[in-house]
């Protein structure tokens, strides 16, 4: 499980949960315009049409990362390990097939993890992508200053920043990128692991 990425450089990672949805395109457009990359944790049942697949291919080509966030946004903890493995594997296989690319990262809904989640992510070869900065955009939709202050206060080199595909997050995103850049941070995509050798 990772919540930050050890780095000697002042680099941070922007992540967006719960897509794809009506704001995905806008978020990607803003990131592309600022030449920064994002990590997107998609819910399987939201990935439906050829349009989603096409957008995904475009995002991957531009250097963004797509990970999974289960099929139905299910809580994992307290479920038996086999069930957790199944939940991770089903969504990973489904989304991977839809986007035509392998998936390396998994994010647990609600951050609800237990020991079995760690084991399950290992067995499914998924990196469990946690975070160490919660933007609180899910909580403070009407209080953008609190979101900005919270990010400004919590961010450190290597931070993985949790955000969501929400309208107010789209509106704030250029300011968030500027805040991070002004603090001297580079914004990078979650690193793609080298492919494991086939057994
Ligand atoms: Zn979520």
Distance between the termini: 24 Å
Query: What's the oligomerization state?
Result: single chain
Share in helix: 25-40%
The tally of beta strands, per DSSP, is 8
CATH fold topology: TIM Barrel
For the record, the count of structural domains works out to 1
CATH class: Alpha Beta
Gyration radius (Cα, Å) is 16 Å
Major sheet description:
6 strands, parallel
Task: Give helix and strand order, one letter per element, not per position.
Answer: EHEHEHEHEEHEHE
Structural class per helix/strand content?
Answer: alpha/beta
Indicate the low-confidence ranges by residue numbers.
none
What is the overall pLDDT average? 94
Helical region count?
6
The global form is globular
Going by CATH, the architecture would be: Alpha-Beta Barrel
Your description of this structure?
- This protein is of the alpha/beta class and 199 residues long.
- It has one domain (11-187): TIM Barrel, CATH 3.20.20.370.
- The protein is 39% helix and 16% strand.
- The chain has helices at residues 24-33, 50-61, 81-99, 115-123, 144-154, 167-182; strands at residues 11-19, 38-42, 65-68, 105-106, 127-128, 133-134, 160-164, 186-187.
- Strands 1, 2, 3, 6, 7 and 8 form a 6-stranded parallel β-sheet that branches. Strands 4-5 form a two-stranded parallel ribbon.
- Strand 4 (105-106), helix 4 and strand 5 (127-128) form a beta-alpha-beta unit.
- 38% of the residues are buried.
- The mean pLDDT is 94.
- The structure holds zinc ion.
- Zinc ion binds next to strand 1.
- This is NodB homology domain-containing protein.
- Residues 10-188 form the NodB homology domain.
- GO terms for molecular function: hydrolase activity, acting on carbon-nitrogen (but not peptide) bonds.
- Pfam families: Polysacc_deac_1.
- It comes from Aneurinibacillus danicus.
């Amino acid at each position: 499980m990772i919540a930050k990425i050890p780095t000697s450089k002042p680099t941070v990672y922007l992540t967006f949960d719960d897509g794809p949805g009506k704001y995905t395109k806008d978020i990607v457009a803003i990131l592309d315009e600022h030449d920064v990359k994002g990590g997107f944790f998609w819910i399987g049942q939201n990935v439906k049409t050829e349009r989603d697949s096409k957008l995904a291919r475009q995002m991957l080509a531009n250097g963004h990362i797509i990970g999974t966030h289960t099929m139905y946004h299910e809580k994992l903890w307290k479920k038996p390990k086999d069930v957790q493995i199944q939940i991770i594997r089903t969504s990973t296989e489904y989304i991977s097939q839809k986007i035509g690319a392998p998936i390396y990262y998994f994010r647990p809904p609600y951050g609800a993890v237990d020991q079995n989640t760690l084991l399950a992510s290992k067995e499914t070869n998924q990196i469990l992508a946690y975070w160490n900065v919660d933007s609180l955009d899910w909580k403070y939709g009407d209080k953008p200053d609190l979101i900005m202050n919270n990010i400004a206060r919590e961010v450190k080199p290597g931070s993985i920043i949790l955000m969501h595909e929400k309208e107010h997050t789209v509106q704030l995103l250029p300011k968030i990128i500027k805040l991070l850049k002004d603090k001297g941070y580079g914004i990078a995509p979650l690193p793609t692991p080298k492919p494991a050798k086939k057994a």
